[in-house]
Amino acid sequence: MGSPSKTAAQSSPSFLHxxxxxxxxxxxxxHTLFKPVLPTFLxxxxxxxxxxxFSFPISLSFFLASRSFSSLSxxxxxxxxxxxxxxxxxxxxxxxxxxxxxxxxxPAVHADNFSFPSGHASRVLFLASLFHLILxxxxxxxxxxxxxxxxxxPCFVLFxxxxxAIMTATSRVLLGRHxxxxxxxxxxxxxxxxxxxxxxxxx
Length: 203
Known about the structure:
Layout: H1 4-9, H2 17-34, H3 40-49, H4 52-65, H5 70-94, H6 119-137, H7 141-150, H8 154-174, H9 180-200
């Protein structure tokens, strides 16, 4: 088996080879450095918490529970579907192989066999960005529900959401599922999706 840098650089345009080699080397170094330190079950827990098969039913349940949650649930549902389609399209276009040291995983769809960009990173940054924008610009029902049912100030909940999002995105590299640039690209896409969902997908 070849080195991670050589494996990742195969079948790529020559001008991208140095960047891909750097990405592969840094990603592998981070993976090997933190693998003995961080418990795998924690990284897997973060992975499962951001899975589309988990997040989408929850967002759908918000909508079905009460139409008063529409300011949150509708952009949430549409944004998650947008993210699923966009990330899948980009993955099928670039077809970047996942790290060779990636632990055993069961892809839900064919696009999950590819690495760039990270769907988990885009999803969690989308959720955090959308929640941030709604809470900061549409304070009312969402803020009241947080204080009534979670018993925390909305700002603390928002901080917790961002911590979860960043930890989950980071865990994709540490777990060996993705390269660093996959995660950065996914995070950037997720923030853009959050802005789009907040501005154009609220009905």
